[in-house]
Amino acid sequence: MFPELVTIGETMVVLVAAEGHSRYVPRFNKKQEGTESNVANGVGLLGHSGFIGKN
């Protein structure tokens, strides 16, 4: 079975300050971002997508 939606793009990593202002915080949380991967993730929750990305 083929997915109904395939996105092609590059997933990015966003570093978010764990607490407080990013200038003074020694620890950051990593989050996956990127328009294509966000769309594929959202539609994937419905069971209808695939994602082609680059490492």
From TrEMBL:
The lineage of its organism: Bacteria, Bacillati, Bacillota, Bacilli, Bacillales. This is Uncharacterized protein. It comes from the Bacteria.
